[in-house]
Every structure is written in C-alpha cells, then in structure tokens.
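U., I forgot to send this yesterday:
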Amino acid sequence: MPLREATFDWRGFRGGEVGSRQRLEQIGTIFLQGYHAALENDERESLVLKLKAVEAEYRGFAFEGAGMGLTLLDHVAPFRKDRLQAFLDGPGATHAYMLHVGAGWAVARLPWLRRRVERPLARLDPLLRWLVVDGYGFHEGYFHWRCCVETQAIPVKLTAYAHRAFDQGLGRSLWFVDGADAKRISATIAAFPPSRHADLWSGVGLACAYAAGAEQAALEALKTAARVYRSHLAQGAAFAAKARQRAGNPSPHTEIACNILCGLSADAAAHLCDMAFKDLPPDGAEPAYEVWRQRIRAQFAGGME
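Result:
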C-alpha cells in the first residue's frame, strides 16, 4: 500500500481541524511503515529494531502494521505459517493488543479469511482474538467508509458476537473518518440503528484515547455527545490505557482522555482493566471478552448513565 493512502484527501474523509488531520495522517503513515517493514524482513530481531526505532508514542501503530504484514505472510507465503504467533510469543508480546488488531486488517484483505472469519480466530488467544474482528471492522470503515458508514453495511459472513466486535472497530474508524470531530461523530452514530450505538461509542472511546487528535474541549464535547453511552466511551478509553501501559508507551493524550472520559488517571483506568480481567468465566452465551468489557463498563455506569 502506498503511503498516500493514509491521507485524508486520498481517503475522502470528512472534516477535522488541521492539527487533528495531520496527527491522524501521521498515524496512518506509521502503520504502513510497520506493515512494509514486516513484508520486507520478517526475521524477528531485525523487525523489532525497525519497529522500536519509531517514537514511543506512535510505536504501537507500527506494531499494528507489522501484525497485518505478518498475518498476510502466514497465509500467502510458502513454508512458514507461524510468523504472527511466534512474534506474539516473543518480542511482540507487550504489543499483543495492536498485533491482533493488525491481523484483522489482513483478514479484511484476504477473501478466503473473510468468508471464514472464525477459522483464523480459533488459533489465537481466546480473549484477544476478538480484536482481530475489531481490526477487520476498522479496516472496512477506514477503506470503505462510504459503504460501511454511510450505507451501514456489515459483512454477512459474521456471526453472533463477531458482529459486535466488528462494530467496535468500525467505531474506532469514525475517529479518522470524521476527523476527531465530536459533533460529526455523534451525528454519524445517531444515523445507525440503536442496537449498534453502544459498540460504536466504545470504539470511539478507544480511538480518541489511544490515537488522540483532539484538544480537551473536544473531548468534553465528545463525552457530552455520548449521553447514555458514556460508560461505553469510558470502557474504550480504559482499553486504550491498558494497551499503552502493557506496551510501555504512555501518552499525555491518553492521560487527558482518561481523566475526562473515565474520571481516572490512565494508570488507574488500566488497573481497572486488570481487576475486571480476574477470574473471567470461560466462553458461554457471551464470550469472556464481552464479560470483561461489561465488568469495566459497570465501574463507570453509575455516575454516567
């Protein structure tokens, strides 16, 4: 993919202040750099050196791109089929969240994986595997937003909870498509069926806290716009805090977002994720991943809804 594909003009994204657009475009460019680094040399030590050369605040996006590249190689290159898992088991362990999301981009690009999304999931971490579908949803919103956002199409091959995980990623993409503009994002989500609102808002919360691109006033406006979905917005922000804490790449933007959306510091929001993670039940009528999200959200619900 050429780097121009990360620009707002190329994608036709809507609105956004100049500073927000520049930051979000930079994130897209760094993702593509990580993707190309994995395709050019998937040898672990060499790849890690390239990814760690990226500024810490943006490094997660490079790992996300590498997740896409490694997954593509696993499915189209001969001989080896364990590149992603080996990287997750080794130097990529601290960036597990972003690598799983990146794998979802590869799912979106390979027709035989799109037709059987559950198949690649079965080989991955039973909890974080849903982030692959999240990544699939983000990809579709980012690259095909007129179809997935304006006409609200959702892949027919997704079943049960995968539909919801897809919407969580689609919600993340709105942060880019609508240029981190709270008013536009709120209007976009309002046009969707109410059954999809909660997961879309959760995705927005994760994106705004991890990727940033909005000033404090805009985050306050976003919280107001979320209304009854504020706890979903907060849950997404808490996930972002945990992802950054695990990777050791804290950001002042994540700190500000957690203070506003969660009423907690980023470290406290990440700790809340850890507490909610304890003694999760096995997958049942609802995946353990969704129980985890519900537990986190319940910590915010009383004072927000």
